[in-house]
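Schema walk-through. Below, the input block comes first and the output block second. Nothing else is stored per chain. Lengths vary across the set, and this one has 487 residues.
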Amino acid sequence: MKKINLLLWKIHDPLGRRPGHQIMEFVMQKILSNEARPGERLPSQLAFSKLNHINSNTVERAYGILCTSGWLTTMPGSGTFVKRNSTQSQGVFTSTGFVNELPIAIKSGLKAAVHPHHMLIQNFTPVGLNTVNPFNYPERIMFKYRRMHRKGYENISQIDQITDSYGIAYREAVRTYFNDCRDFKLNKGCLDIVLGRKEGLTRVLRTILNPRDGVVNTVPQDLVLSDVLHTAAAKSFSLSTLDADFIEKLEDLLQVSKIKLLCLRPQCGYPECNVLDEDKCAAVLELAKRYKFYILEEDDYHEFWYRPKPYKPLACYDHEGYVIYIGALSQLSVYMRNTRVIGATKDFIELMNSMLQKPCEFHDVLEENAIVEMIYSGDLGREASEIRRIKEKDRDDLLWVLKNYLEDFMEIEAPDSGLAFWIRFPDFSSVKESLSFLERQEINVPYDPGMPFHGLATSNMYLGFGTYNKEEAEVAAKLLRERFINT
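--- output ---
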């Protein structure tokens, strides 16, 4: 067996208060730089601990997390090795859409914001919550990891805490998560994190767009996106991905109008939560390359899919830099939902950060450290799978209630992803009339507090089931059925 070069595994930087993290970052950097190649054996845990004067239990734990997350592998009786088929060990990925150079030049320079003259009013009524019930928050696991890291801050200096707030380890863990669990193949420098959806959209769109640039918006009823596009003074064209000839309509538009950006919001778009099949994804990418426009792909609900296999986002195709991805890290907690992951070419990330100074953001470093541990231990993936199973059962229960009582009167579309139904009420009773009737029967209608009911005579409802109670749903459905029968 080849002798191990121990000098390769000597950590020369001073050990900080979290040597476990330092070990993991040290080993990952050796692999990414190809100093440690696939199949190469690492020093034993005891040898590594003696070489670097680190507690052997700390080394054992770091090796274990790296094995779980796919960087290393163990062979009983032989030792620990760099994993041969690890995507991380390739250093630079051989095939990825997230390349280093921009496919279309973007004019640099700070761009003035233009405030919208009007606000869009949605043509549907959102009811219920399309976010996960806080009861499902993985409190026990998060508390364990938070407590583990809290002690390290007992005597930390202000400069060290400011360094932690930059979230370097957090970004690297998130990059690992999206590469391993979603097959993104994000190289280093091709990912950034922004706290808040509107802030993330603003940074991305202000980097791409100049006033009067053409934008195809497939989700014009999304108030946040529409507001940011108005502020950027973009010239918007609306198309629906539900149209059977969506690709043909898009190409027809491209032939007569200069388009800079196509906005897609798969799995979570208002109102229909539609996704494109693989043929349409390939066709959209072909059009982007031919007509030279960017695709902004926004995805919040990648954990909640109820098909045989999850939706493959455009970010996973070899898109040559034309796709800019922005999405929530996870729906498992408010902090993870607020963590907006931006995946793009390295050039775009650098341009965005040079043009627009990041706001002074609040970072919960203990929460971020706990999330890092959840990612590397596999806990985040396991918890997401369990909550998806729970919400799939809730979806099936709610679908049974709606079909059993109201199918004769309503159009009901069960989602194959996300956390909301799309329902069309009968022409003889608008959503407002029906919900007003329920309130007169002393039923508390859960209007989404973030998107208040405007009292429009609309027939469409966006019904969230992030929090779901079958008894409440059945009582309301029975009352509506009686009303419809007697109308």
